[in-house]
Task: inverse folding
């Protein structure tokens, strides 16, 4: 393979070098933390995805070293490739934050916000997005669009009311399965994901549409209403499967396997399997293998500390990459009060996570 | 009488047929171009002519042509955008219906300039009968050796195919048109790559409006420099304006872009004044997506100068006090028209026509329509006006294709210039259901501050 030239790109005052052809979003993900724009429709493993939801809009304040003019409009970072010397503003641009808040509001207009009864709650990208970038109140005073629930076969349920039309499942069905039976009907705000006259989706890999769905529009009927995801413990497991890589995540409670999904990375996308291909899993692994004895358990999954799923799982804590001080060019965020200066209760040298039992006040008296 | 280039022969009896068209000097430009000019010469002539795209954006056509990539061994395509769906615009329909051979002639010359052997006319589905007219014309031209293989013995092959759309406004956007032409759902593509690099079937493609391609014929016949002498400044040549609304003589007019807006509306040669002796209240000068202007800003610019019917003058003052030439759909509103209702109608249209691909446009257009509906029917709140303003600003510029902008601009302009009419609707919910706001002060002379 020929050596690819490296391009220098500065995102929110952090400069990195990435191979030519990388998108702004992928570059920002290499930096990680808050600098990576949120995405609802982009999925690095699906060709052609992205550009639709507009949550990843960023400002390009300098086009490149050769042509330093800024780009006139905000651009979708997931589909814009970097140029050498490009300067991008994400969280340092008020314009971006304003537009993003607007997009979140638009996405939530017709979303039912029925999180309390939605199976996706706790691992929903829209939930995270509105928590991080949305406003606390909506200005929408009209009826939301409502659809009937549709069963796509006996294992998958489509609840269009929650859909944000990211097209990810359409790309999945197009690229992973052989028959195209699944697409978008109608247009505008009445467009919907649909199959050909409620035809079943019967392909071996169609279950992956559940994994790519960023919201609770496509859910696993073998898991619906059985448990909240944050009560279950995710463990990595594998089995010998002749159809797929067989590397999965089991969502367990006690000895019971409640749900099987593909393994996901920190951006909520399906991870690569150990063989190097994308770790899509087949329907048999996903829906039919619900006994512990079906699987070889590798150990607890690493879960982002910020996720609600990590509540109660004290093992394998993964600290997110903190970028804020770099964005602010070395300065730390200004603290209103440093707890260690005013209180002697909380001691930095005592790591509660290392205790094997619940913490006790005596633990602070060492 | 102004210069006419496109519609000069449009009213000769039988001009739709090849014989009459040829007798009247048709297909001269094909002979001239294919036999005496090289493709580069033609592009140069078009550049010299200063012809700007007539579809709405007004991008210089010669420049667009020169951007087309020419990779070895990859076919290139010319696509004629006949998906004329902008409310208020019907000039292309008039051209294709009355003088179809003019378009065919322009297509052959342009195909030769761009090296397109398969040229497509993508026509809106509602123009079903025009498809027959065009296909008859293409077959006649083919029978006479102007279309098909080895045109005029020069070895240049060009086939013209007519493809009907299925009735979506969005398919007039060039990348959505290409998707639709490929047989897919008409969703606009993300740019880059631009069609000039990867268009139809990933091949370099140029998409031009019907009127633009027809204007190539006089440009080749008279030469680019001669053509550039018509008109004024960077608005060269002639432009078809489809005038409609509350005027005495609605129709398609060819203007040379030197006349004032006032003359266009009131002279008997053109619109013939406002119908039923009413007074002018407002006008959308370039098709439904361009900003609406009140009478006073339409006839005079904010600086107090006369406004002319050309690209520069109509957009004088930017969006704050100006509008756009757009596609030339000139919609005139008299004093009995309600701006709120008009804006609601447009918002409903854009809501219906949004492809639903990107979220600001999909959700925002529907939201705007609902709020406007409330205001129009006396259920609005005064805060709704600011909310509308905020929504349109969140849509504009944040979408994949210009439909988002096109939906946002009419709402923005209506609030910018007619805010008191909106407020009156909110404050007088009962009265607003019974009568219109009327002309009010919208035709009053504008105060122009005198600078020493």
Result:
């Amino acid at each position: 393979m020929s050596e690819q030239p490296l391009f220098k790109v500065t995102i929110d005052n952090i400069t990195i070098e990435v191979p030519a052809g990388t998108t702004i979003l992928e570059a920002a993900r290499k930096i990680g933390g808050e600098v990576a724009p949120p995405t609802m429709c982009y999925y690095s493993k699906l060709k052609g995805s992205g550009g639709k939801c507009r949550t990843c809009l960023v400002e390009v304040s300098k086009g490149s070293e050769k042509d330093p003019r800024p780009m006139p409009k905000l651009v979708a970072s997931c589909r814009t490739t970097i140029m050498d010397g490009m300067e991008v503003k994400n969280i340092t641009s008020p314009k971006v934050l304003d537009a993003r808040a607007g997009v979140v509001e638009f996405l939530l207009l017709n979303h039912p916000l029925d999180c309390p009864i939605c199976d996706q709650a706790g691992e929903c990208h829209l939930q995270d997005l509105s928590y991080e970038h949305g406003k606390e109140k909506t200005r929408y005073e009209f009826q939301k669009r409502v659809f009937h629930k549709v069963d796509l076969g006996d294992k998958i349920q489509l609840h269009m009311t929650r859909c944000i039309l990211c097209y990810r499942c359409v790309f999945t069905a197009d690229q992973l399965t052989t028959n195209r039976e699944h697409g978008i009907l109608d247009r505008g705000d009445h467009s919907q994901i649909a199959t050909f006259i409620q035809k079943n989706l019967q392909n071996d890999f169609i279950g992956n549409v559940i994994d790519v769905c960023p919201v609770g529009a496509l859910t696993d009927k073998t898991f619906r209403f059985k448990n909240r995801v944050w009560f279950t413990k995710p463990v990595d497991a594998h089995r010998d499967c002749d159809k797929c890589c067989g590397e999965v995540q089991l969502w367990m409670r006690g000895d019971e396997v409640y749900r099987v999904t593909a393994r996901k990375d920190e951006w909520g996308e399906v991870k690569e399997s150990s063989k190097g291909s994308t770790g899509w899993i087949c329907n048999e692994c996903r829906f039919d293998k619900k006994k512990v004895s079906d699987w070889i358990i590798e150990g607890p999954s690493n879960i982002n500390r910020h996720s609600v799923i990590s509540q109660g799982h004290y093992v394998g804590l993964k600290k997110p990459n903190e970028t804020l001080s770099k964005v602010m060019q070395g300065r730390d965020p200004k603290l209103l009060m440093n707890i260690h200066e005013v209180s002697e209760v909380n001691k930095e040298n005592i790591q509660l996570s290392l205790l094997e039992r619940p913490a006790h006040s005596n633990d602070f008296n060492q | 009488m102004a210069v006419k280039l496109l519609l000069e022969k449009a009213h000769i009896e039988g001009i739709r047929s090849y014989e009459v068209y040829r007798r009247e000097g048709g297909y001269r430009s094909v002979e001239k171009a294919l036999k005496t000019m090289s493709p580069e010469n033609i592009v140069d002539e078009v550049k010299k002519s200063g012809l700007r795209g007539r579809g709405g954006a007004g991008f210089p056509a010669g420049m667009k042509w020169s951007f087309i990539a020419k990779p070895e061994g990859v076919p290139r395509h010319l696509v004629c955008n006949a998906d004329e769906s902008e409310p208020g615009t019907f000039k292309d329909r008039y051209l294709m219906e009355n003088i179809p051979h003019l378009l065919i002639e322009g297509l052959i010359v342009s195909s030769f300039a761009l090296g397109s052997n398969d040229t497509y006319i993508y026509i809106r589905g509602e123009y079903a009968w025009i498809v027959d007219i065009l296909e008859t014309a293409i077959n006649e031209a083919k029978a006479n050796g102007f279309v098909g293989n080895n045109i005029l013995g020069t070895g240049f092959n060009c086939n013209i195919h007519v493809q009907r759309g299925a009735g979506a406004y969005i398919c007039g956007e060039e990348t959505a048109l290409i998707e639709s032409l490929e047989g897919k759902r008409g969703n606009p593509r993300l740019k880059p790559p631009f069609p000039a690099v990867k268009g139809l079937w990933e091949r370099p493609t140029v998409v031009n409006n019907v009127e633009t391609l027809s204007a190539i014929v006089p440009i080749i016949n008279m030469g680019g420099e001669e053509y550039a002498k018509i008109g004024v400044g960077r608005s060269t040549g002639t432009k078809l304006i489809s005038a409609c609304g509350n005027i005495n003589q609605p129709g398609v007019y060819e203007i040379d872009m030197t006349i004032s807006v006032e003359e266009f509306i009131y002279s008997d040669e053109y619109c013939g004044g406002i119908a039923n002796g009413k007074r002018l209240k407002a006008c959308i000068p370039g098709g439904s997506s361009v900003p609406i202007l009140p009478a006073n800003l339409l006839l005079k610019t904010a600086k107090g100068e006369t406004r002319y019917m050309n690209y520069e003058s109509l957009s004088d003052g930017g969006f704050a006090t100006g509008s756009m030439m757009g596609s030339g759909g000139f919609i005139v509103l008299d004093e009995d028209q309600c701006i709120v209702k008009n804006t609601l109608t447009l918002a409903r249209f854009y809501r219906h026509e949004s492809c639903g691909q990107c979220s600001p446009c999909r959700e925002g257009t529907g939201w705007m329509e609902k709020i406007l509906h409330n205001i129009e029917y006396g259920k609005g709140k005064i805060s709704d006006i600011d909310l509308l303003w905020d929504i349109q600003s969140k849509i504009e510029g944040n979408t994949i294709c210009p439909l988002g902008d096109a939906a946002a601009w009419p709402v923005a302009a209506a609030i910018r210039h007619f805010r008191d009419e909106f407020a009156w609707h909110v404050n007088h919910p009962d009265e607003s259901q019974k009568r219109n706001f009327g002309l009010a002060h919208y035709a009053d002379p504008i105060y122009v501050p005198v600078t020493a």
